[in-house]
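Please go through this protein, sequence plus structure tokens, and consider how the sequence yields the tokens. Keep your notes short.
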Amino acid sequence: MRPVFEWKLRSRSLQLGERTLVMGVVNVTPDSFSDGGEFLEPQRAVSHALDLLGDGADILDIGGESTRPGSRPTVSADDEKRRVLPVIEDILRQAPRAVISVDTYKAATAEAALAAGVEIVNDVSGLTWDENMRPLLARERCGCVLMHTRGRPDEWRSLPQLSPEEVAPLVLHDLRRISECATTAGIAHERIVLDPGFGFGKRMDENFPLLARLGELHQLGFPLLTGTSRKSFVGQAAGADSRLTGTLTTVTASVLQGAHIVRVHDVKPAVETVKVADAILRAQQLAGKSKGTAIRVKVGG
């Protein structure tokens, strides 16, 4: 059963749980693992973002720094702001009602983006890489996505391997700690969405047991976002040329495990996929409600 939430953003709310929302990715970077450099030029990024809205994206996630495996933090807050702010401002000029998230772990970038009109801060570090992020989010009263990660991108390849039984309990434990730190800092419960961080400090096959047990994270009492799009573990399982097919499979699995939001690069096929997955989920929920009802069938004469 997928719980229903009202996600409080900066100037509005989003209903979560009645249907799966689709967050479209706009990377304004030269080196993202999937589309690095493709939308670094602001006009191309804005055009791409507007296309994603036309394809049915509910939220746009704008990022200015790659966190691909092996990368080091080389982008300053000033450079990150120079990349994302013109894109955010132009999108909102052309689509004033667009719901925009800024993908950053830097408080200075988040503050500037909020001033430019974003509704959500998507922090891949779960508030752990910049001590100024917690008080900022508490003060600004915006929506936030807090993600689980093990270490930093340049450390991921050297981290101890996790057994299939370890992954989900570790993420559950750490996300509980992250959410408790956030609410203690004054970030309201209804403003928080949690992300288990597929691929972030999890090696290839470590991601599948996490996806299989995603539903266990509902015990934390927060909406869930998943970001499996074009990830290496998907390509390894499906084949390098089949990342879209593999992504849509993981999107379906995420929805059936109760994800409220899916973050994807390919919005149109994801929107079509979640419509079908939502229909299956509703059928599961109806079956769960009627479970235990006796149906008597007369056999023979």
Notes: Residues 5-290 form a domain with the TIM Barrel fold (CATH 3.20.20.20). The two ends are 40 Å apart (CA to CA). Residues 293-301 have pLDDT under 50 and may be disordered. The chain has one domain: 5-290.
